[in-house]
Amino acid sequence: MMRAFTKKENGAPAVGNINKFLQCALYDGGLFSGRVPRSLFQHLIIKHLGKNFPDGMAKWRKLNGFKALNDLDHQVIVAVAEVIEELQLKRFVPAITELRFSDMQQILDNIPGTLASLPALSAKTIGLIVAFLLRMQRLTFSEHYEITDKRLVMIGVNISKPAAKHFSARLTPDFPIADAGALSMSIPIAFKPAFVDAVVDIQMARPQMPGESVKAFRKRQDYIASYQGLYVDGGLVENLPLHVFDYEDFPHLRNKRVMQVNPNVLAIGLDPGPDPLDPKFYSNSLFKAYLADLQTKYADDPEGWEVRKKEYEKTVKKHKENVAKLTNPGNPHTPFLATYAPEKTKFGNNFGVLARTLGLIINGALSGGRESLLRTDQERDQYIKMYPYDVGTLDFSANKDLITFMQGRAEDKVREYFGFERKNLGD
Questions:
Q1: pLDDT of 137-149, one tens digit each?
Q2: What is the C-alpha to C-alpha distance for residues 165 and 161, in angstroms, rounded to an integer?
Q3: Residue 15 falls in which region: left (phi positive, over 0), alpha (psi -120 to 50) or beta
Q4: What pLDDT digit, counting tens, does each position of 258-275 carry?
Q5: What are the distances in angstroms from CA 170 to CA 25, 86, 250, 301, 303?
Q6: Nearest CA-CA partner of 233 in 178, 277, 194, 274
Q7: What is the C-alpha to C-alpha distance for residues 237 and 227, in angstroms, rounded to an integer?
Q8: How far apart are the first and last CA of the chain?
Q9: 136 near 27, Cβ under 8 Å?
Q10: Which of 207, 265, 330, 393 has the maximal Cβ count within 10 Å?
Q11: Residue ranges of the domains in the chain?
């Protein structure tokens, strides 16, 4: 059954790991990210579509529910169906109730160019494909962890309590990731609060067990109730959640008297400080003014200030050199840089004015909160600042050149943090 995924065809790398294939599916659905999943995913499509790879990738990425299935290559559909069946056998995917043929026929009647024209696909196979796609839309935190072995945490503020709540495989195993993503980005004014009335942990919600004390039972009930209510963006309270992974690796860090942070965590934050592409930033007067403003933040930490001052004085020269690199005509990011205006705010139409202004206000407020969360030198050391350029708080559809540019910047920042040579851009 899995022959197509365990052998190399036409020199294309084999995709023989079911776990990794599903990671690819999750990645392309917006639930998983990483270069390895992307690479494996591309190898799979190349293997089945050959020279038609670009068109095949475009079709695959448009897969938004079963309505687009008929646009896929027949071999790819069969291969996906085989993987889904194998996943069921290996218990990677919870049992899917087999759809009745009459139900499938009703679905097929509503699909342009019906899948019924593909005789190799049985009603059961089609049912598995449809059910799998629908299942991905309701993937829970526990299922995501079981499949990917990656820990994912999202944060929302329950304004009905009020309290900041973490959503993860440990705390909310039965809550859908898509719903957590929606509530974690519900910025006040821009979006209406998200309402949660679901049971986040089925085990915690079970009836009182024989021998269980009333106190223990009520504690479980209170836990479930604490997650129910109206939610807004978690960044309003925890805009730099460095500590969300402390408990899993180092339970003792939960003791608030121990001012430490999980050493395995590295945070990248968008810092609306001086624009590293604006030549005016490097004038002596402006740079000194920036240092003076920065010094006020270290009024109670003179030693920390001296360290920061030396760091910034050392990097200003490097920044000047990299402005020349970044604006070099041979730079691959010139398309973005050519349209980038450091001193201009792009407002556009009336809605753009409102969105941009609100975004700037929110970003300013969140930036201040982020700095206050860096309480120790260890926390500051595990935080990488990156200038946001044209990315605003309410910009949910940035242009492709900007996204590529920012990804390269982030990668270089991380590589430099660990002492590796930069690959993409200047600092």
A1: 577 888 788 767 7
A2: 10
A3: beta
A4: 556 777 788 887 776 665
A5: 23, 27, 14, 37, 39
A6: 194
A7: 16
A8: 49
A9: no
A10: 393
A11: 3-137, 145-238, 267-417
